[in-house]
Amino acid sequence: MSELINTQNHNKDLRWHLLITVSSLALIAAVEPQGARASDHPSVWIELGGQLERIDGREDPDLPPFMAGPATTGPFSIASPYDAQKPSIYSYGTEGKIDFQPNGTPWHFSAAIRYGRSNNNKHIHQQSQVSIQFIHNAASAIPTRTSEAQQFADFRVKNAETHAVLDFQAGRDVGLGWLSSVASFGIRMAQFSSSSDVKTIARPEVGFNKRNGFGPGKYYEVAHHTDFTSVSDNHRSFHGIGPSLSWEGNIPVLHGEDRAVTFDWGINAAALFGRQKAKGTHQTTARYYSSFSYQGAAPYGVVMRYQHGPLPHNRTRSVVVPNVGGLAGLSFRYAAAKVSLGYRADFFFNAMDTGIDTRDTANRNFYGPFATISIGLGG
User: Fold this and answer.
1) pLDDT 10s digits, 189-200
2) What is the pTM of this model?
3) CB 42 within 8 A of CB 103
4) What's the CA gap between 270 and 119, in Å, rounded?
5) Are strands 179-203 and 152-176 parallel, antiparallel or unpaired?
6) Quick one: residue 177, left, alpha or beta (phi over 0 = left, psi -120 to 50 = alpha)?
7) CA-based nearest residue to 287, from 70, 81, 66, 134
């Protein structure tokens, strides 16, 4: 409960920081001195857009011992337990940015946010179509039997992921001849979270055991099978904040009187100081069933082969996460509007604890296409 309250308070703090920054920039623009030097360019740019990002560095799957067999045999011939637990590799999101440049100065002040999420639910059921029979010899008084228990495997998986990146920066125009660019420094905040809920029921083997009967040449059979169940629930997160640097610019490709096409580029780097958390539990059970086939399907015995868990884990660690990224794209620019299309990548090294029983760190990487529309105000 305390972790949930802390997470909620942290989210509120992020929203308040963003609201205060945006409100301050808007207030500065509204009370700008009338004596400021006029400019042909808008002093405030508001940008909105969206992105489709591929996500790397996902969580370790829960693979109990009964899933360790080859994925191409038994009831696991359609999809392996590992593949069944794979989360979505893509996320959809939105982004926004406000950039303020006081008239007559080379300085820029900006606040930006990028948010994305992905969810997927899977239900995979596999069942064998082959009947398992026990064939008797002529001396037997017991007819041929067919097992009524079928081999099967049933996977139910829920995965969810969210990420948010906030930037507050101050930058300055850096002109290098025909190259227009802005070098900025500031603060970057990042928040990543993921959860997985996995439920598995499997009966990987079904068969008969021959037992000696009463009298010479007589025997009977015992039908048997083992049912395995596994439940796993895991939650991971990272919250960090730290200094950031970026350098963005554009190169003219086509230029007209009131419009232009430019090639945009940018690089960024940050060091995020924060906390990495992993919390969850898992449990595995195995029950062995057997029965006398000549007495119908009445159970003869049920034996608990093993029961592991529930086994909880709760890890928290302070970490420093390096972050680097870049973008490239095209912008169609007008006097007070801009449409941009491009490709962006951000790499956060060892950001997440993806392990279950033991810590196992992995990068959290986002890369993919984006599109934005910007409107200029003032001037």
Assistant:
1) 999 999 999 998
2) 0.77
3) no
4) 28
5) antiparallel
6) left
7) 66
